[in-house]
Amino acid sequence: MSFLEGRGSKKSRASAEEVRLRTQYVDPSLHFLNWVNQLGFEKSFLGRLAYYLDRKFDLRRVLLFFLFALALSLLMFSDFQTIGHFSVGDVAKTDIRSPMNVTIVDQAATEEKRLAAEKSQPVLFDYQYDAYDPVYNRIYKAFRIMRIRVDQTYWPRSDFARAMKVRKFMRFKPEFMNALQVKVPTHIFEWLVEQRFNVEIENILIRVVSQWANEKIADIVDPTLRNSDRQVIIRELTPNGNGHEMLMKMDAIKNMQDMTQFPLDGVRGFAELNEQSRYNVTLLAHSLLLPNLTLNKQDFEERQKKAWDSVLPVQISIKKNQVVVSKGTTIDPVHLSILNAIRSKEAARRVDFLALFSALLFVLLTITFISFLRRYSRDKIKIESKDILIMGVVTVLVVILARLFLYVMDASLADRFSKIPDFAFQVAAPAVAGPMLVGLLVNSTEIVWIFTVFLSTVLAVMLDLNLGVFLVTLISGIAAAQGVFGCKKRNDIYMAGLRTGLVGALSSLLIFTMQEMANKHVFWGAGICGAAGFCGGVLSSFVAMTFLPLLESLFNVTTDIKLLELGNLNHPIMQELMMKAPGTYHHAMNVGNMVDAAAKEIGANPLLAKVMAFYHDIGKMEHAQYFVENQRPGHNPHDQVSPHMSKTILVAHVKDGAEMAIAHKLGKPIVDGILQHHGTTLISYFYNRALEDQNENTTGTVEESDFRYPGPKPQFKEAALVMLADGIEATARALDEPTQSRLNSIVENIIESRFMDGQLDECNLSIRDLATIKDTFKQILLAMYHQRMEYPHMRDGKLIAVKQQNELVADGVTMKKRSR
What we know:
- By secondary structure, this protein is mainly α.
- Helices cover about 60% and strands about 5% of the residues.
- The protein contains 31 helices and 14 strands.
- About 30% of the residues are buried.
């Protein structure tokens, strides 16, 4: 006894100490809250602005998403490889690989190509086709004037006197040169005077000029332009400026710097002259020579500059993970320039700023799409925190898998198969596993679509804004999400992977062909990319199958795959329901058949609706005898209890069923279906009994709200279907004679009463959906409760009547015997 008292006294002292500690304990968060309140931040302008933004734009959720996007961006742009510092002559101890794609300009090779392009540019000459027309007139005028002077001069017969006359005639030389517009040597003029400016000499000169007028003659001083193989553009000068251009080689043009190109041997009358005369005529003719091609220096230099600028820089392209310096190789200046360029690009990249800007881009993209859908979508989108968390985890998972896949492929296969395009490795990554997983774990198609666009953008940004990767991931991702919709078994995911692979193959092939159309090996590369796109879709299905069970357990998500498992009637709960409440079990099967057919007609999820119907009344197992479908004829336990107690027992089956569903991890959709399948409907029978008891006892008041289920009302189509089918099937079961008209009336009345009671206000059923549901339920009820006719010739399984000799009754129809 003393021992018990001692223990009791110690226990009492411990309890007192605990009470004292509890009374003295102050939550530290209260101190922090009081400190924040003392600051008065909520009353300041910034505080009111922050409160407004948080209320208007859900600022806290946006900030959390920005932090996630920033962390995701840092993961995307973090480099696992860096280039160290090297000098010329160092020996590489290991293979030095480039951590990124980098392009370096080869200045020397670029300069050489530009000079070659500049030299290969055709020389531009302006051609004046009538350049020699004034020369004819000047020759004719000069010789005619001189012949007049000769005729006006007396020429003595003695040689000496004639020589003196010639000297005196020299005073007319300037007049001759002015008329001819060329400089004439003295001895040539004297020779012409002696020849009395013979008409034959004049004609020879005119014939020579006429011959040269048909030639292309230029005065080319620059030796760099004298290459005979160089192209020449001859542009004809016309008064209206529309002369055409022709292309020829330099050797087709005669250069005035080389007089050997202008012989007079073929000119008529030239051969009859003596040697001295031929020489003088040649000198005089060459003095008349002028170019009809003029170098257009300005336009030529402009064309050279364009040719210089049109030469693209010679680039050295280094791919990511490509070996820049092999192990044991001595680093030379070319290696050093490449390594320095890579290091400079790494320094200029600034991963912190890059991650910041990409995070802002992701936030902007997501807010824009969600705002658009919330405003213009017919069904208001409700994004739950769990869905956001699922998409975040899947995004990080896909980014990690994609980076690891690309790193392994680049390190192991890129060097061995250098002809395989980088695009092939990129589309082969299991990126569309993300839309597959989200399509299986999240019910909203709009959210899956937004996630697919977001993930495609993330991968494109990670791969240097690769538009091809964005398009392939977007198209294949949508196909993947569509492929996993309505999976009936886990093997359907593999089939979805095959279909996604075909879509990925086709999109990869088309996009690569469009990008590399100028490449002569485009079709070979397109085939490789198509095969890689197919592998990417199939590989994504394996990844989705691997991580789906883990994500289902981690987030307690009920996917269609899990619904298939729950739809197995061998589930322990269904077996227990069949044993404890067989009537409820049969009722659940009928409701399941009804909602399955109706869901298919209105576009809801028939699998979810059917499984929800199977489990919607599992809470009745606790008090199965209080529900009419489980009662024996003539025995009703409600007769022994008050209406309030009966109401409490009936309402309790919702709470009990939800608790059982949570305990057995049936998933949130099943729990929601159990909680919502009665909504806030009125238990009218016991409410009316309570009113009768009130009238008899005249004590207390009966409130209608006390006899309503606690709700909530159905929030989605499948829950609404279960509510309607549950009430209709239960009422139809109670009919003694389930005729077609009575069954149709039950369907019409119950759906109308639920609608008028506001039970369907919070789900997205339309009036057209309700009409479709009515027609479907009527057909199903007629199939389940069709009235069987009595066979007049049968009773208790025995034949009791055969009409006349030639008549018999079969299946209630009178038939005549065939005569033989």
